[in-house]
Design goal:
six-stranded parallel β-sheet, about 240 residues, alpha/beta, 8 strands
Length: about 240
């Protein structure tokens, strides 16, 4: 059905350069251009009072790392827990907040060791607070068409550690730490750097909102409408 839709379409719009490249692989016989209209972001940092309240509600009494989304398949949560396990006894200094819901997998719990791991499903408003209170968002996903979660974290001024593949490098620019998703050790090192280096955290927190401000829903809407108008002008009408 998707192949049929691609063949029938008069125009193509992608949310990232990476998605456009993936789409082009399935359009080898089509000369039509692909417009890139990135998504926007409208998250904002939460107040210290809101952050304190959510931490109390979730019983996050120690600095915590945030792991968002499902913990299966391409989101690659296993890499985070493998990397986290390499911190050894230092794990006791942290908590982990997972927002994908469900029960924490037994092997992940074992790798977390002495760290407190909380699993929750949060509203958009509470996610903004969770981003703001986190030591860092760790996002080791091996495939993203766009990557809204890390962009929201940047907008909230939260340090981001994410994968160095698919759309994430173009989205994050120089405002995040990019890591090899095949290397638990590399991710462990990035986690360790963010934890230990207050200057690095401050630098990433300052860069994040600047980078995120490049992605606005108004721009997305305007460019999408422009793509529609261009398609309408060049589409042959069937009578």
């Amino acid at each position: 059905q998707k192949q049929q839709a691609l063949a029938y379409a008069s125009a193509y719009v992608a949310v990232s350069g990476n998605t456009a490249r993936d789409l082009r692989k399935h359009l080898s016989d089509s000369p039509r251009p692909i417009d890139i209209t990135p998504n926007g972001c409208d998250f904002h940092p939460a107040t210290p009072e809101a952050t304190k309240a959510l931490r109390a509600q979730l019983q996050l009494h120690q600095p915590y790392f945030l792991l968002s989304g499902t913990r299966s398949d391409y989101k690659n949560a296993r890499l985070f827990f493998e990397a986290f396990s390499l911190l050894g006894p230092q794990r006791a200094n942290f908590s982990v907040l997972c927002t994908g819901g469900g029960e924490l997998e037994p092997d992940f719990k074992a790798m977390a060791g002495p760290a407190m791991v909380k699993v929750a499903i949060l509203s958009d408003a509470d996610m903004a607070v969770a981003y703001s209170g986190a030591l860092a968002l760790v996002y080791p996903s091996i495939y993203e068409g766009f990557g809204l979660d890390p962009l929201e974290a940047l907008q909230a001024g939260t340090p981001v550690i994410c994968a160095d593949r698919t759309s994430l490098p173009e989205l994050m620019g120089d405002a995040a730490l990019l890591v090899d998703t095949d290397s638990p050790g590399a991710l462990r090192d990035a986690i360790d750097r963010v934890w230990r280096d207050a200057d690095l955290r401050a630098d990433l927190a300052a860069r994040g909102p600047v980078q995120a401000s490049r992605f606005r829903w108004a721009d997305c809407a305007r460019e999408t409408v422009r793509a529609w108008h261009d398609a309408a002008r060049h589409t042959v009408k069937v009578t």
